[in-house]
TrEMBL record:
Domain GST N-terminal intervals: 79-160
EC number: 2.5.1.18
Catalytic reactions of this protein: RX + glutathione = an S-substituted glutathione + a halide anion + H(+)
GO biological process, one term: response to toxic substance
Name of one Pfam family that matches: GST_N_3
Protein family: Belongs to the GST superfamily. Lambda family.
Keywords: Detoxification
GO MF annotation: an example: glutathione transferase activity
Enzyme kind, highest EC tier: transferase
Domain of life where this protein originates: Eukaryota
Keyword RNA-binding appears in the UniProt entry: no
UniProt-recorded name of the protein: glutathione transferase
Keyword flag Cytoplasm: no
Amino acid sequence: MSVGVGVSVSYPSISLSSRNLSVPSSSLYVGRKVLRPSSDIYLNLRCRKSRTKPLLAVIGSSRVPELDSSSEPLQVFDGTTRLYISYGCPFAQRAWIARNYKGLQDKIELVPIDLKNRPAWYKEKVYKANKVPALEHNNRVIGESLDLIKYIDANFDGPSLTPDGVEKQAFADELLSYTATFSKVVRSTLFSGADIAAADVGFDYMEQALSKFKEGPFFLGQFSFVDVAYVPFIERFQLIFKDVMNVDITSGRPNLALWIQEMNKIEAYTETRHDPQELVEKYKKLVQAK
Ligand SMILES: N[C@@H](CCC(=O)N[C@@H](CS)C(=O)NCC(=O)O)C(=O)O
């Protein structure tokens, strides 16, 4: 179902026009309430020439605000299913993508947390580990992103993220167990002074893995929780390698290039993408801190 939303924006640089702009379907909020009856929302907005930034700011700021130490505690275990995330966290992004892909925006409420200024009640009442992601469902709280993407797939309606057949399932297990090694080898180049060869081991593994099932550009041919598990990390690594080292991680890796291209067509993922500049800045700050 497509929904037309009339938006009147008084910001001086934006005026109504006939040019349609498609906005991700889960991204308009008033306070913590989402304005998203179910599908695409079109805003008829136009930025006056050369002033596009305020429009991006409007879209960005339409994400539900993060809760912080000043936020009132939620009524935990009141029957609401909630996914606690942080917008900048790649682990949380996995669970967020799974929720979006399965069309669960109305069934699983997104609760973003400001990790730098966390509400004390999050650790006390919600998740003792004090990390994101965490899912509050059926009077319990489940953490760990790789478990969560499987849990969401198995316990909610919507398109399946689980691969078909024994061979694909076995390869899915192998790929999921490689996620930690992948991060480790790439991060050793980014943070620990290892040369590019260390990261290349990880990217070459991706390239090889993507060649196994030929019926589609995804790890298992079909889109699955394996793609969901890797994409937040590849998103970050691609940006940082390009910006900081001028290295294109897709160069000489056509399967990886195609996979990124196809992932960028999946709205369940693109809705969750982080501001590229912020990601690069965050990385630079981390390196300086080390
Ligand atoms: N193994 C966990 C890692 C989750 C994680 O480390 N999340 C970070 C944010 S990206 C966090 O909550 N950090 C808070 C902390 O460690 O205090 C998973 O896969 O879910």
